[in-house]
Design a protein that fits this description.
8 helices, single chain, five-stranded mixed beta sheet, alpha+beta
Length: 226
């Protein structure tokens, strides 16, 4: 099944991106876009779709079945509608600012109730880069040593959505970008979670890096940061 899906997604990221843009333009031909591959497209002020055609590109390229397609609508600098699709499991996460709730394949989702570090599952946004790994160890030593399980996973939108559905208690990534985390952040917040910039300043989806957690665990994570 995985090979069939990869074959379907085989075109370059730019081709997938163009398919998404074409479909969205068929709904509103005047809308603007920001995408990872093409940058800014269009000149409509205040409203645009933000697209990441493959979030988790390295996983996709090497056949690791953990990646997604992320699309969200930004109005006046606020994300008001978001979709994150996992083609491997056929799971669609979505949320709107109007509904104030988040869904996975039409079923409501909510963050976990975990509040203790010793019971937590923590995900960090790193691959086999020793400088990045060392930075996380230096800045989050308590989480690494005390959590029930910690690991590195690359695919920010999917990681944040897994926090939203209660699979992961906290996701930490100093390098995530707008295309990868903007839409998933809305899904998390409307599922009862919390998100902030990597330095714990107020959340801005335009800022690089994020800390995403259940509300019960958010303050515990903050106390662990060095």
């Amino acid at each position: 099944m995985f090979l069939l899906i990869v074959r379907f997604l085989k075109p370059e990221k730019r081709d997938i991106e163009q398919m998404l843009i074409s479909d969205l333009k068929s709904i509103d031909s005047t809308i603007s876009f920001y995408s990872e591959e093409c940058g800014e497209i269009g000149n409509q002020q205040g409203t645009r779709w933000i697209i990441d055609p493959i979030d988790g590109t390295a996983n996709f390229i090497f056949g690791v079945p953990y990646f997604n397609i992320s699309v969200c609508l930004e109005k006046n600098d606020q994300i008001v509608e978001a979709y994150v699709y996992n083609p491997i499991t056929d799971e669609m996460y979505y949320s709107t600012e109007e509904k104030k709730a988040s869904f996975l394949n039409d079923k409501p989702i909510h963050v976990s109730e975990t509040s203790e570090i010793r019971n937590s599952f923590i995900v960090f946004g790193f691959s086999a880069n020793i400088r990045n790994i060392n930075r996380y160890y230096q800045e989050w030593p308590l989480l690494f040593t005390e959590c029930k399980k910690g690991m590195g996973l690359l695919s920010p939108a999917l990681n944040i959505c897994n926090v939203a559905r209660g699979r992961i208690d906290c996701f930490i990534d100093f390098g995530s970008n707008m295309e990868g985390h903007a839409g998933a952040a809305l899904i998390l917040e409307n599922a009862g979670g919390s998100i902030c910039n990597y330095d714990f300043s107020e959340w801005s989806h335009k800022t690089k890096g994020c800390i995403a957690a259940s509300k019960n665990f958010y303050h515990r994570a903050r106390d662990c940061y060095f």
